[in-house]
Design goal:
Order of helices and strands: EHEHEEEEEEEHEHHE
Number of strands: 11
Strand order of the largest sheet: 1-10-9-4-3
Largest sheet: 5 strands, mixed
Low-confidence stretches: none
Oligomer: single chain
Number of domains: 1
Radius of gyration: 16 Å
Length: about 190
């Protein structure tokens, strides 16, 4: 759907994003309502661009939104940063992986965007839709730089079509940029669950 008119689009939150992007967690969150975020997406729809590694607007799009009210999920690490590793998985049916968390201040948010998947792309690789939407919010992006590279593990999950991934071929340069960027950051450690 190339139509830049967002008025008739059915936009919604995926259950995946709703469970991940929560206040106080180790992922980006928006300090407003789901409805307010969807209105920001609708307002920015004409400025959307293809998702990382994509060439068109058919399956995955990134919609820029104002960065106010977003909270980042990353800590810029250095020699003094306390790190903790954990074995986790994003969803019960996905393979587990090692995630490194950092104790430190969250990076400032200077850019924000919302990643949305089309209804058809959500069904790829055994995926599910969360509602009767044309597009679903899958991920919130917010941090210090525009066009933050995707986490290399997410790229690998997608390219290898692992459970939870949506196929996309990335270049060696895209992987290298992502590895370099994320070698200097870690997800914020939110502390013990309460």
């Amino acid at each position: 759907m190339k139509n830049d008119d967002s008025a008739g689009l059915r936009l919604g939150w995926s259950d995946f994003a709703r469970g991940r992007h929560v206040r106080g967690g180790s992922h980006v969150w928006f300090e407003g309502s789901e409805k307010e975020l969807l209105e920001l997406v609708r307002a920015g729809w004409a400025a959307r661009r293809p998702g990382a590694g994509r060439v068109d607007l058919d399956k995955v799009v990134i919609v820029p939104v104002p960065c106010e009210r977003f909270v980042s999920a990353t800590v810029k690490v250095d020699e003094s940063t306390r790190l903790r590793a954990e074995f986790t998985r994003r969803q019960p049916h996905e393979e587990g992986y090692i995630r490194v968390l950092a104790d430190g201040p969250r990076e400032p948010v200077r850019h924000a965007a919302v990643v949305l998947y089309s209804a058809a792309s959500l069904l790829e690789n055994g995926g599910e839709r969360s509602g009767d939407f044309d597009w679903e919010v899958v991920c919130l992006l917010a941090g210090p730089v525009a066009d933050e590279p995707m986490d290399p593990l997410t790229m690998a999950r997608n390219m290898l079509e692992k459970p939870g991934g949506t196929f996309c071929a990335y270049t060696a340069e895209q992987f290298a940029e992502a590895v370099w960027y994320w070698s200097q950051r870690a997800a914020v450690d939110p502390g013990p669950a309460t």
